[in-house]
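Memo subject: From amino acid sequence to discrete backbone structure tokens
Action wanted: Derive the backbone structure tokens from the amino acid sequence.
How to read it: Take the token row as a discrete description of the fold.
Attached in line: The record itself begins immediately under this heading.
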Amino acid sequence: MQIKDVTNYIEKLAPLSYAENFDNVGLLIGKYTTTVTGILVTLDTLETTIDQAIAENCNLIVSFHPIVFSGLKKINGNNYVERVVLKAIQNNIAIYATHTALDNVNNGVSAKMCEVLGLQNNKILIPKKGIIKKLTTYVPLANANNLRTKLFEAGAGSIGNYNNCSFTTKGTGSYRGNEKSNPAVGKKGELIFSEEACISITFNSYLEKAILKTLFNTHPYEEVAYEIITLENNNQNVGMGMIGDFETPMDEIDFLNFIKKTFKTACVRHSGLLNKKIQKVAVLGGSGSFAIQNAIKLNADAYISADFKYHDFFKAEKKILLADVGHYESEQFTKNLLIDYLRKKFSTFAITLSKKSTNPIHYT
């Protein structure tokens, strides 16, 4: 098994095109063609993580956070990032990161938070724009059904809870092939008017390569006329954060104690109590202050995230209970999500969970 076999499987869960523009995801160190001896799953990649990989004969580290986030001008070992990169290269260890690609899927980081909290009726907090595309192409009427079917099989035509979605109009196409042409209908040099179907079909952006391959392999014409545009529609199944409900409402103090225990943290920083029951809860792993207004807009009683600054707590405006459980704490279950996912596919292969906490923050 090669590294690309593992990363291709991970990207079925968390397509890299779903990552935020500022992020650095994918295979950061190593070659896709390297044969895998073992996989180590971790939240962060530190020197101790490399040491564990060496000790357990794992030459692929699957990390949530990318060790290389911005450009490295030198690799001299002068800081922890450079030392990790050096040690990984020296020991032929590859590093792959998912980060916001996994944040943005509906069964990713925030979904895992909902799971451990026991939230129900979960949906995306901030649906993502710019990842729904539309293909429009023209095909002879006799070939329209087959082309639609093949495009559906390739993953096109899925919208929310629906699949096999498309729109077809009928019309007349015209063309004249030159002496080098090989027209599927009519003869070269002849002006042809053909009854055609115009097929429009949407697809998720990460499927574009597969969709085009299917189009070219299935379409009968020598020259395929098509266009692809990016739609402004939100994708309700992709995006940051989630919001769901407790089956039974909680008192605020009970809620704070519950999340303190659930996220195994010594401290929960929170906004002022509102003397109301907590039932609808928004969550977002990692730094989530940017989503406070989204949680308020969706009438969440509480919002659990991390890295709130002093002035962020004022944004509660006595409308919501903000709870900062800590960055590491909010994302700690992500490595369990990844290892469970990988073991379903590679059940007989050595996949190890990182042993040590990589949380750089301590409480006294």
Summary: The longest strand covers residues 235-250.
